[in-house]
Amino acid sequence: MQKLKKSKSIFMVMAMMLMFMGGFVTASIWMQRDTEQKISSYEVKAAEMQEAGPVADAAEKETQMDVSLDIAEDLLKEMPDKPLLREYARKGEEEYGDSSLENTINDINASEVGGAREAIIRVCEEAGIDVKTATVKDLTAEQIAEIDQAVYEVSDHPKD
Fold first, then answer.
1. Which of 31, 53, 84, 143 could be stapled to 139 by a disulfide with Cβ–Cβ 3.0 to 4.6 Å?
2. d(CA 24, CA 20)
3. Those residues with Cβ within 8 angstroms of residue 76's Cβ, 6 or more apart along the chain or in another chain
4. Could you give the dihedral angle defined by the CA atoms of residues 79, 80, 84 and 88, in that order, rounded to the nearest 10 degrees?
5. What are the CB-based long-range contacts (under 8 Å, 24+) for 128-135?
6. How far apart are CA 141 and CA 147, in angstroms?
């Protein structure tokens, strides 16, 4: 009776292993087909772009302003309640990249010179926003993009 239980357990373990192996094989075959389809679609797109020539490339290229607007929208979602200037960040957090809009914009642009502070103050003065009490959500995406553009222009980033 005990031999029967042992052999039954062994068969159950073997059956489960076979099921798992079958699942892995099926998943790997599916993933390989999916990858092959993606590669072929990329090859088709690349061929179409070559046929279209450089005019299509230029039209599809994202401009620096588009990049700045994307960054601005992300910042509005991710850090709406952060202060605009580093000096108004919570005590002990002044040095962190996401403690203020000033730090974040300077970090994004890898700016040794900085420049975000001046750009933020200028944009706020033009819009009548109190820079001391305002937070990121008090700016529009376009205003944040304008700040980012100003810092990008004075940064060491290569310009197109």
1. 143
2. 6
3. 136, 137, 139, 141, 144
4. -80
5. 131/84, 131/85, 132/85, 132/88, 134/83, 134/84, 135/80, 135/81, 135/82, 135/83, 135/84
6. 10
Cα-based angle 140, 142, 146 (whole degrees, multiple of 5): 120
Question: Which one-letter DSSP state was computed for residue 63?
Answer: P
| 83, 105 Cβ separation under 8 angstroms | no
Instruction: Render pLDDT for 82-121 as a digit per residue (tens, 0 to 9).
Output: 999 988 887 765 555 567 898 888 888 877 666 889 999 9
Q: How far apart are CA 9 and CA 66, in angstroms?
A: 63
Digit-coded pLDDT (tens) for 13-64: 889 999 989 888 888 887 887 777 777 777 777 777 666 655 544 545 568 8
84's CB contacts (< 8 A; 6+ apart) are 100, 101, 102, 120, 124, 131, 134, 135, 136, 138, 139
Write the single-letter amino acid at 23.
Answer: G
Which among 91, 110, 89 has a CA at the least distance from the CA of 101? Answer: 89
